Predict the structure.
Amino acid sequence: MTATADQVGGGVVPGPRPRQSGTAFGLSIDSDVPLSGIHDRRAEHARGHCSIRDVSLDELEAQWTVDATVRVAEQLYTTGATAFAIDHAASAGYRIWSFGFGTYLVEPEGGTIHCVRPAGPATKVERVLVAQALPLSASLQGLEVLHASAVVVDGRAIGLLGASGGGKTTLATQLIVRGHSMFTDDALALAANEEGVLAFPGPTILHLDPTRAVSGAHEPGGEVLGTTDKTHLRVERAEGRPLPLGACYFLDRGTDDREVVIEPIEEDAPRLIMSNAFVRYHRGPDRLMRVLDASAQIAAQVPLFRLRAPTSAGPAELAEALESHVGRTVRA
Amino acid sequence: MGPLQVNEDSTAGRGILNERVRIPERVVFRRFVRETVVLNIATGKYHGLNPIAGRMLETLQEVGHVGDSAKRLAVEFNVPLSEVQADLSDFCRDLINRGLIEISSK
């Protein structure tokens, strides 16, 4: 598919811009494109590097002169029109296109992202860069990325996994309201080996469902950057250092339980971990092996729990139950 | 020399107990607490084995000969040899059909 100027909203003419540097998802990042929420800290713990380049559509299309492409992901509007698509070409990388949100080319090794910015607020660019392109870059560079949010409890990163719309961000937000630090939202980058599982913080931005309220009188604290399909909140209290992954909680909402139940997972561990891989379309042999190895390391070293909750249980109740469980169960 | 062609005679009934098998390079597996996950890199498919099947696969990898593997497993699980031979024969045929093991020429 060729992205057109209309489809990207007329485009933004790139020009010389100050470079921004920081870290997120285990990557040291330097960027022509302004990014909110990447950690402004030295990259001594980074496991890879990503340069984000602000380019024109012509420049990006020139890099995408390929013979064969495969569409690896797609979302359609109800009309059947394409809303979002990811195409792969072995020689050029992954091209991510989102209607009204720009076009992005992630090079095959993940070291560079070329970005054709759409007209409009910066949150549009960040929505795709943070939600898709940077996690893909991390995955291409050897990190394993789970579809998960995470907060810091007792000095460890605690992963929150579950189906889309299952309440991961809402629960993370409630835990932040209760005083814990944000670690990441929606994508959790990991490096797993025999010595342990290390989690890398994501950008300090929560992508809140505007239809869901956070209970309690206090907001998580931060700046609303804008609204797309989500409300994007830059959180003040956020951890910028990699931390050991202390535990993972798989959220199972709407169960028949009368109260919140937290139970250890053993039998479904491989399927749950692998089915929560964030970048499912990156399926080369090395990646398949890495998913298997990382899943085995996580299952062997990280306590896994299922958090079952009836529909009547609100975010505050879930957060209190999880917080208490971590304190009793998860050891440093 | 590559793996022998699988013919029905060798795998039918108990004939497979006389064969040696190997796990091809395109197949890797990792043990979890309650499951062994097998990855066929060529197809990109993951397969799950229960703990006993996982142990069978490990033993086949270690021993190679199907009949000898059955003997080892019978001792390990304290189960009659004939029962293990039947289960292991069926298991091997299933793995062969899925491309996860091959009958080896040596």
Notes: Confidence is low (pLDDT under 50) at residues 1-9 of chain B. The helical segments of chain B are 8-11, 51-63, 66-77, 81-97. The first strand of chain B starts at residue 21 and ends at 22. The beta strands of chain B are 21-22, 27-31, 36-40, 45-49, 102-103.
